[in-house]
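Sequence in, structure out.
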Amino acid sequence: MVALSQSTIQQFFLKPSKPVNPLTFPQIPTIDLSKPDSKHLLVKACQEVGFFKVINHGIPLNFINKLETEATKFFSSPQSVKEEAGPPDPFGYGNKNIGRNGDVGWVEYLLLDVKPNSQRNIFVFNSDQHQENFHCALDDYVTAVKNMACKILEMMADELKLEQRNVFSKLLMDEQSDSVFRVNYYPPCPEVQESEIDGGNLIGFGEHTDPQIISVLRSDNTSGLEISLSDGSWLSVPPDSESFFINVGDSLQVMTNGRFKSIKHRVVANSKKSRMSMIYFGGPPLNEKIAPLASLLEREEDSLYKEFTWFEYKNSAFNSSLSHNRLGIFEKFSSKI
């Protein structure tokens, strides 16, 4: 990224955060997927927080390391080379601009299609060998992470006593699943040291919820991810490069009629260290109807949401600002006093 003027840098700053009350939220839920109580703990974390860390996940570390190495090569390329892979439409390389509504962040990214044999991820790399290595690493990683996400969703369905164990996971396994993969790179920004001393936070990626069903995040050992707590404060998530973090998406919140929570989160960058994260967003097919599952609605329990297709929600979500309550227009508002 090129050097910026101080006035330009100001648009990337947040106001100082409200301090976290340790009694409000003592720690991030950590779930060992190899333990017999993991199903119960998964559902508990989705209901209480909407965010958790999983360990003993079974994904080979060499899959993680290979993809991170190849992504690092790409983001270390000359700016002119990276820009030949953009602008994102919707897939490809992006820089600073996020979405269609003026949201900005101190971030570079690759947004990638994960459909089998997709031809939409053919980007310009330093060499044909680099491109081949990148796509091989991407395929191995995404396949493993998708399988883990489906396992987690099936464990949730078991714990919820749903008749169809694959009621959530089948949407990710569908050949038409609208799942995507994103690599975010947050470079250091030396010009911001003075503003950081004054208590400001450099926006890497602004606050938002994820619209899909489930998000699977892996980052390096640089901190930056924060989640929003019910009292309005932001909690920094301690990094752990060997584990995965899971977000409940808006669509899963709807399908569980609000039992599971889609939590707001953001990323703050800093002046000294770069950060890289890799996120698999598990989404349903575009024509899939999203609504609370009838089998979850208890007697006389009303649906909190109107039915919509993923295509409708995706269009609505991506045409609004990041921080907007994107589910708001699909909520049912009772006229009862």
